[in-house]
Design goal:
The structure is a single chain. By secondary structure, this protein is mainly alpha-helical. The protein has two domains: 13-47; 52-117, Arc Repressor Mutant, subunit A (Orthogonal Bundle). It is built from four helices and three strands. The protein has a three-stranded antiparallel beta sheet with strand order 1-3-2. Helix 2 (59-66) crosses helix 3. It starts with 10 loop residues before the first helix and ends in a 6-residue tail after the last helix.
Length: 122
């Protein structure tokens, strides 16, 4: 590839070259993010065999699955969007609803990155 003296190019062409370079950087970062997401999905799927859990999960199950502490798991269950059934002081989490919630939270994280741009710029 020949080296071009960009100072001799028209301003419009300089902008196009700059945009192409920026596009390639974003494309490369997006590719890396996709790879990291695929790796994370694989870790979650291999690390958490949901079939070993009953149809309803406890806070201890949630902590184990997410690899967080019991206090953090309780805090999570207090979120309005978190699927749970209260039975007195007991908190029961339907496994299917939890898996769906987990998938939606991952999707929301991806949407957040898309809305903010790769580098957090708006």
């Amino acid at each position: 590839m020949a080296i071009i003296d960009t100072d001799k190019l028209s301003p419009a062409l300089q902008v196009l070259i700059g945009l192409e370079l920026e596009y390639n950087e974003v494309k490369q970062e997006l590719s890396q993010l996709r790879k990291e997401l695929d790796d994370l999905k694989e870790k979650v799927q291999s690390g958490n065999d949901f079939s070993k859990y009953p149809l309803t999960l406890t806070v201890n199950d949630i902590a184990e699955i997410l690899r967080i502490g019991k206090v953090q798991a309780y805090q999570l269950t207090h979120q309005e969007s978190f699927p749970k059934i209260r039975e007195g002081k007991r908190i029961i989490v339907p496994k299917a609803a939890f898996i769906k919630w987990l998938d939606s939270e991952a999707f929301r994280g991806i949407q957040y990155v898309k809305e903010r741009g790769i580098n957090g710029k708006e």
